[in-house]
Write a structure and sequence with these properties.
With about 300 residues, the chain is of the alpha+beta class. The protein is about 20% helix and about 30% strand. It is built from 6 helices and 14 strands. Strands 4, 5, 6, 7, 8, 9, 10, 11, 12, 13 and 14 form an 11-stranded mixed sheet that branches. A 3-stranded antiparallel sheet has the order 1-3-2. A hairpin with a 2-residue loop joins β11 and β12. The longest helix is centred in the middle third of the chain and has 12 residues. The radius of gyration is 23 Å and the shape is elongated.
């Protein structure tokens, strides 16, 4: 017989789905049979396979040990860098200042030196996440290109991830970027609409003024903060969030980002002057209701400082 107590990471999941993840050697047919026979119980009571587990529930399995071999994994994230620049942290999430040049997730070439691996290492070493006792894996609710800096939201449990994904989709989290671009604007603030297509093989996008086959609509709002010598510093409120949207959209209107080797003027240079510097949590939360109305802004943004010092 084995038993375990449902932790915060696993709360909110169906019993059968959690058992499949936790005990991969347990055949589905046997699992459902033993649930019906009351050899798998929750809080010492008969339960259904679809039962939604709550924090603190005790699951007991009166089965042979050979089918209850827990999933074991090699923790390659322990080789990831330990250092993380944390802006804010609580029991559900972390807000992290990602530096330009750091991958959010593995890209097929680099698997260890990524932000998500560092997050896993931190939570594992702090005891907040136990891979062997949890079916949830820490995840990022948003992402940034490798060479874009800024605020990333890391989640510590499934419920927080679900709420944040929904909030981002419904624009209940407002994302603002700082960008240094070529050219000065006649119109100091505007909402731009266009259409975008993606070339998966080349990892590039193309922007069109009019609706095009297989294109998705994009909306980008910009506001000029400062200008000098044919360059501008702008705030961008990202209304839609498509791949390379800011870089491609600004290039499309004749204001490519400084140091953008893919869509800009500087061939071969890929440290585009772009930073996700502000998040505003507007509302629509349950578990994360305490975040409503809170605003987080990077206090020390390299792009802002460099522009103010006229170093572009």
């Amino acid at each position: 017989m084995k038993s375990f107590t449902v932790n915060k990471s696993d709360a909110g999941q169906r019993l059968d789905r959690l058992l499949k993840k936790k005990y991969p050697a347990l055949p589905n047919s046997l699992m459902y049979k033993e649930i019906r026979k009351k050899n798998i119980k929750v809080n010492k009571k008969r339960c259904d396979a679809s039962y939604t587990l709550a924090l603190g529930d005790t699951v007991e399995l009166y089965l042979k040990d050979d089918v209850l071999q827990e999933k074991k994994a090699y923790y390659d994230f322990m080789r990831a860098p330990k250092e993380i620049d944390i802006i804010y942290e609580d029991g559900n999430l972390m807000l992290i200042n990602k530096k330009a040049g750091i991958l959010c997730h593995p890209d097929g070439k680099e698997y260890v030196n990524t932000l998500i691996s560092s997050v896993k290492r931190r939570l594992y070493e702090s005891g907040e996440w136990e891979p062997e006792n949890s079916s949830f894996t820490p995840a990022l609710a948003n992402r940034l290109d490798r060479n874009t800096a800024g605020i990333i939201i890391a989640t510590k449990n499934a419920a927080a991830l679900k709420e944040l994904n929904c909030a981002i989709k419904n624009r209940n989290i407002e994302k603002h970027y700082l960008a240094a671009v070529h050219g000065e604007f006649k119109i100091k603030s505007a909402v731009l609409e266009a259409y975008i297509t993606k070339d998966e093989k080349k990892n590039t996008v193309t922007v069109f003024d009019n609706e095009t086959k297989n294109a998705k609509k994009i909306i980008t709002k910009y506001t000029v903060i400062d200008s000098y010598g044919g360059k501008s510093l702008i705030d961008i409120d990202l209304i839609t969030g498509r791949t390379h949207q800011i870089r491609a959209h600004m290039a499309h209107i004749g204001h490519p980002l400084i140091d953008d080797g893919k869509y800009g003027k500087e061939s071969g240079r890929f440290r585009q002057a772009l930073c996700s510097y502000k998040l505003i949590f507007k509302g629509g939360f349950n578990l994360l209701s305490y975040m409503t109305g809170r605003e987080f802004t990077l206090k020390d943004c390299e792009i802002y400082n460099k522009f103010k010092e006229r170093k572009y």
